[in-house]
Amino acid sequence: MKLVIQQKVFSWGDKFTVMDEYGNVRYNVQGEAFSIGNKLHIYDTAQNEVAFIRQKVFSFKPRFYVFQGENQVAEIVKEFTFFHQKYSISGLNWDTEGSFSAHDYSISENGSPIVSIHKKWFSWGDCYELDVSESANEIITLAVVLAIDCVMAADDN
């Protein structure tokens, strides 16, 4: 299953629309404009919150938590490396690899692909294509990719 994340360019805070490969809106992502640390809410088309992403503000390494309901399901941490970016994803036993600076990377579990992410260049605002291997992982995969994007955006600033 393919998902396309399209950033809304002129908006307060982070706003993304997530569509399927046919252009149907699947999710809306809304950031909190005036909060300490990044906070993103993922809503389905009925405006039900399906996931929440929160940055740990006072942390030595960039760290984000993903929640579904009241349950924390993942912790994403940017690891210190000298030559390439590396992220650990606790709680899911997922591994990351690829070129994060080029926005071309993948996430796998024990060698089995979970999702591959590719940035669409020459688009209005940031646009990413996710190729999700199982629809059961769709929401959590989307949340993890958005958390990694928050870390990369903070590094760029």
Layout of secondary structure:
Blueprint: E1 2-7, E2 15-20, E3 25-31, E4 39-44, E5 49-55, E6 63-68, E7 71-79, E8 86-90, E9 94-99, E10 104-109, E11 112-119, E12 127-132, H1 138-156
Antiparallel strand pairs: 1-2, 1-12, 2-3, 3-4, 4-5, 5-6, 6-7, 7-8, 8-9, 9-10, 10-11, 11-12
Distance between the termini: 32 Å
Gross morphology is globular
Mean pLDDT: 84
Rg, Å, rounded: 15 Å
Task: Summarize the structure in words.
The protein is mainly beta and 157 residues long. It has a single domain, classed as Beta Barrel (Porin). The protein contains 1 helix and 12 strands, in the order E-E-E-E-E-E-E-E-E-E-E-E-H. It has a 12-stranded antiparallel β-barrel. The chain is globular, with a radius of gyration of 15 Å. The protein starts with a strand and ends with a helix. 30% of the residues are buried. The mean pLDDT is 84.
Short description:
The chain has 157 residues and is mainly β. It has one helix at residues 138-156, and strands spanning 2-7, 15-20, 25-31, 39-44, 49-55, 63-68, 71-79, 86-90, 94-99, 104-109, 112-119, 127-132.
Features:
single chain, 157 residues, mainly beta, Porin, twelve-stranded antiparallel barrel, 1 helix, 12% helix, 50% strand, globular
